[in-house]
């Protein structure tokens, strides 16, 4: 589990709930019509703006942000160095037998084993990066749109509440509760936007940048292995992609 994502979301909710309980009760902030307007209206709008399969894809990506990153950048560098060591010791053709769950890395090993031209590897990785960015951009765009729709529907709910309040001006006792209900709708929209939708969009963007960097590491490693099959030189080149404190060459 991604501890940062979980702690951030949990602490944000806890702080808001704490502030609510310090000044009243939770039931004062529960209003079913407001939920219907904000949540229902926001989901309806996103289904109009995007194909349904892209909406499902975006929410599926949201669930994945709670999982920890399986592979760190330094681990990708070390994998490419080990591949260089295998290719130098057993020959390029041995890379066909490399077993990995990373499909891009598997493809790179196959291209190296086939002694492919570096230009072909570059073009293959470029296509993979472009395809990955397009897939991730869908989820990011959906949540950025959700972050814009939620406060707007919150304002719509507030206007509805104000209209209903003004129609009951002859009963002063209802003005306070009616105004509170009207403002709660804006509260719902702002909470969803700032605590959920915008952070999720940011996290998806961060994941995209990280995966792009790892694909670049794989490409540079593959090219370096083909040009000069020296594990030490491969590491020295690829270590530029990672922070200095993570750089440590371990020869096997």
From TrEMBL:
Domain Motility protein A N-terminal: 7-88
Coiled-coil segments on the chain, per record: none
InterPro entries: MotA-like, MotA_ExbB_proton_chnl, MotA_N
Record carries keyword Cytoplasm: no
Main location: membrane
GO CC aspect terms: plasma membrane
UniProt family annotation: Belongs to the exbB/tolQ family.
Location within or outside the cell: Cell membrane; Membrane
Name listed for the protein in its UniProt record: MotA/TolQ/ExbB proton channel
MotA/TolQ/ExbB proton channel domain ranges (all copies): 100-216
